[in-house]
Design a protein that fits this description.
Layout (H helix, E strand, L loop, with lengths): L1 E5 L5 E5 L5 E2 L1 H10 L7 H18 L3 E2 L1 H44 L3 H6 L8 H15 L2 E6 L11 E8 L2 E14 L2 E12 L6 E3 L20
Parallel strand pairs: 3-4
Antiparallel strand pairs: 1-2, 5-6, 6-7, 7-8, 8-9
Length: 227
């Protein structure tokens, strides 16, 4: 860079002034913020600062750090998208824990076997199994009314059975449901891996059905005199 200075005789002389380039602070902050994947919205701030740093570098040759600004913008946008996807799936998981058994049973008792099956991984249960499950519950307890989650979202772990209280026309019973993250046509979705109604008198009823014989509440035991 050149500058001009007038000497004591009134003549201008060329004077070379060296300007050392400095790294843009915006670019540095952009790259740093874009790496904070676990902090909500921080990668988005990194992307915004990366865009601003790119504009600064184009207009000021004394600034450097273009690669920091570029990577801050790209990584910030990428990790922001991942955070949004994770947030959607966490919300979906929380809603499945809170409302899954209630919605599934309501659909089954309304005769909508397809919606009931939609709450479970598609390869685990057939229509006949679902229909038999609903028929058994109806025979034992009457019409389904509601389900209340006794376990909170923060208690969920893979493989953990969540506790519920089911209300039927004939009374209340305990139940357990396993909530899983299963693959689907739209990616990974929260589903009910299993639903078990706990009945210490007549035997548990589960979907998918548990292996082995199950004593139905509508079966009449044979009397000893008939043996």
């Amino acid at each position: 860079m050149q500058n001009y200075r007038t000497d004591s005789f009134g003549q201008q002389r060329d004077i070379a002034i060296e300007v050392r380039p400095t790294t843009s602070k915006l670019a540095t902050w952009s790259f740093g913020c874009s790496l904070f994947v676990v902090a909500p919205l921080v990668p988005l701030a990194g992307a915004v600062m990366g865009f601003m740093a790119q504009r600064e570098l184009r207009s000021n040759a004394a600034r450097r750090g273009g690669w920091l600004a570029d990577w801050g913008l790209v990584l910030g946008l990428l990790f922001t998208a991942l955070q949004a996807y994770a947030g959607i799936k966490i919300y979906e998981l929380a809603m499945t824990i809170d409302r899954g058994p209630s919605s599934a049973l309501s659909a089954g008792f309304d005769g909508d076997t397809g919606e009931l099956l939609g709450w479970f991984p598609s390869d685990k249960i057939g229509r006949s199994d679902a229909a038999a499950f609903v028929a058994e519950l109806r025979a034992r307890y009457g019409a389904f009314e509601s389900a209340t989650a006794e376990s909170g979202f923060l208690e969920w772990r893979p493989g953990t059975k969540m506790d519920y209280t089911l209300r039927f026309e004939g009374g209340t019973v305990e139940a357990q449901a396993e909530v899983v993250m299963a693959g689907s046509s739209t990616g990974v979705s929260a589903r009910l891996g299993s639903l078990r109604v706990i009945d210490r008198e007549f035997g548990d009823v589960a979907l998918p059905a548990a292996p082995g014989p199950r004593l139905s509440s509508v079966d009449e035991p044979e009397s000893e005199g008939n043996e």
